[in-house]
Amino acid sequence: MALGGGTFTAMNKIMPGAYINYVSAERADAALSGRGIAALPIELKWGKDGEVFEVEAGNFEAEALYTFGYSPDTEELKPVREVFKHAEKCLFYKLNSGEKASCEISEARYKGTRGNDIKHVVTANVDDTDKFDVITYIGTYKADTQTVGQISELEDNEFVVFKSGAVLNFTAGMNLTGGADGTVTGTEHQEALNLLESYSFNVLGCMSDMDSVKALYSSYCKRMRDTVGVKFQLVVRDYAADYIGTINLKNVVSDGNAKPYALIPWVVGAEAGCAVNKSCDNQTYDGEYAINTDFRQPELQEMIKNGVYVFHKVGNNVNVLSDINSYVSVTAEMNDDFQLNQVIRVLDQIAMDEAAVFNAKYHGKVQNDEDGRIAFWSDCVNIHKQLLKRRAIEEFEETDIVVERGNNKRTVITYDAVQPVCAMNKLYMTICTR
Question: What whole-number distance in Å separates Cα of residue 360 and Cα of residue 247?
Answer without folding.
Answer: 31
